[in-house]
Design brief:
Blueprint (H helix, E strand, L loop, with lengths): L4 E5 L5 H8 L14 H16 L3 E8 L2 E10 L6 E8 L8 H16 L4 E6 L4 H9 L3 E12 L2 E11 L1
Parallel strand pairs: 4-5
Antiparallel strand pairs: 1-2, 2-3, 3-4, 5-7, 6-7
Helix pairs in contact: 1-2
Bound molecules: coenzyme A (COA).
Length: 165
């Protein structure tokens, strides 16, 4: 059964929920972790301006109103038709199809509302669950990008998946 999740814009009041979720030590291959609650508040505060500047569009994933994850699309500022999707889900909801459904909803926004021509997902070669999400959503593996993921100063490789219009 697919859980009836929804996407809505992130709010500053989501800060505690996201901070706790993202600092789960089992989020092994996720590099964008806030260092403090204030960091997360600052990030969320900039979301509206970032949308208005066409930099990035970030959403909360909710289930019956409860915050259970986050996702977003970053727009390449030199090639505006190119977006990169990222996502995370609270651990107690893993394996229930949440990320897969969220990516499908998000790419609809990307292709239909934002008029993107190409959406990418870049995943650590060790992150098997995330690779599975990309494949289930129909993204094609295009190759290995060397030293593309910045894990707080350490540059790591990532597999590039992409879908085009
Ligand atoms: C990656 C992540 C988003 C997946 O979310 P999710 O809601 O559990 O994803 P889904 O349920 O839609 O799909 C997960 C798939 O991976 C599979 N999977 C899980 N662990 C796996 C593993 N170790 N090896 C292979 N497949 C695995 C699941 O079985 C499922 O596939 P299936 O439907 O064919 O059975 C979640 O684990 C997470 O938030 N991780 C931390 C943050 C992160 O890594 N984000 C992605 C950065 S690129």
């Amino acid at each position: 059964m697919v859980l009836p999740i929804q996407l809505r814009f992130q709010r500053v009041s989501d800060a505690k929920g996201f901070y706790k979720m993202l600092n789960n030590p089992n989020f092994t291959f996720f590099s964008a972790k806030p260092k403090s609650l204030q960091d997360e508040i600052d990030f969320l505060t900039k979301n509206k301006a970032n949308r208005e500047k066409d930099f990035e569009y970030n959403y909360a994933i909710t289930l019956r109103g409860k915050l259970i994850g986050g996702c977003g699309i970053k727009i390449d500022q030199h090639r505006k038709h190119r977006g990169e999707i990222g996502y995370f889900v609270a651990e107690q909801y893993w394996g229930k199809g949440v990320a897969t459904t969220a990516v499908r909803m998000l790419e609809k926004i990307g292709f239909e509302k934002l008029k993107l021509g190409r959406i990418e997902i870049i995943v650590s070669p060790k992150n098997k669950a995330s690779q599975r999400v990309a494949v289930k959503c129909g993204y094609k593996k295009e190759g290995l990008m060397r030293k593309i993921i910045d894990d707080t100063g350490k540059l790591n490789d990532g597999i590039l998946y992409a879908k085009t219009v």
